[in-house]
Design brief:
There is one protein chain. This protein is an alpha+beta fold and about 260 residues long. It has eight helices and seven strands. Strand 2 and strand 3 form a beta hairpin.
Length: about 260
């Protein structure tokens, strides 16, 4: 019974495979078209192509990065930063993405100084975020696979030299694999626990309570990135890079 179920699942997967490959190929062609339009200066048309690709369910750092570039060329700084940050979440160590985020942030109205971070925490964060998550996954699989092959060779080897070599090299690959698995897990946990958003809607009043008539603490403008702490009754509690906290209406912020 279990065997029949397994065979059925495999057959369904095989039958869907051509559709998946065809869809991926279509997305690749559309992406090339969008890039061609962008290169010719047709930023609005390029953005429309990128949006359709995203709406079809495709996500990648390069797609979001190009969407951010198109929005920036069209003068929409808030959306540019939103998609640069989306690209950053998928590829946090990418120098081009990080440069564009820094450059775009230099153009926004609000200049907020970050609270200094303990150097060990900052150093650890840089290590964790230096690898794209998809690359980490590939490296993990390759390391564990190679280590497993070496251990199989070790079990069936006839000479002491081959046994020693395959055992210690295989063990080294296992250790490296588990290190990369740890980094991958820490990166996923970090990105999931750090909810962030970009302020939209022009000038936004940050309130001291999630109530319409509450006092205004400060005004934020389009493009400012904030940390999201909580949300209730149509309001989001945010924290700025300098540690200040307050409440904004949920419609005035778009989560990254």
């Amino acid at each position: 019974m279990k065997l029949n179920k397994f065979i059925s699942v495999c057959l369904v997967f095989i039958s869907l495979l051509p559709t998946v490959v065809f869809a991926a190929q279509n997305a690749k062609i559309a992406f090339a078209k969008g890039n061609s339009l962008y290169a010719k200066g047709n930023y609005k048309e390029a953005l429309a192509v990128y949006k359709r690709i995203n709406e079809d369910g495709y996500q990648s750092a390069i797609l979001f990065f190009n969407m951010g570039n198109a929005y920036y060329r069209l003068g929409d700084l808030a959306y540019a930063l939103l998609f640069y940050e989306k690209a950053h979440k998928l590829s946090p160590g990418d120098d081009d993405i990080n440069f564009n985020i820094k450059f775009a942030n230099s153009k926004i109205s609000d200049k907020i100084e970050e609270t200094p971070e303990f150097f060990l925490s900052n150093w650890m964060k840089k290590i964790i975020l230096s690898w794209p998550i998809d690359l980490l996954s590939i490296v993990n699989i390759l390391l564990i696979f190679i280590a497993s092959v070496l251990m199989v060779i070790y079990l069936f080897a006839n000479t002491i030299l081959i046994k020693k070599t395959t055992f210690f090299v295989g063990l080294s690959f296992y250790i490296l694999g588990f290190i990369f698995i740890f980094i991958s897990n820490r990166q996923t946990e970090y990105l999931e626990s750090h909810r962030q958003g970009i302020i939209f809607s022009g000038a936004v009043s940050v309130k001291n309570a999630p109530i319409e008539g509450s006092g205004t603490l400060l005004i934020l403008h389009d493009g400012t990135k904030v940390n999201i702490i909580d949300n209730q009754n149509g309001w989001m509690k945010i924290m700025l890079a300098n540690g200040n906290q307050g409440w904004v209406k949920i419609n005035d912020i778009k989560e990254i």
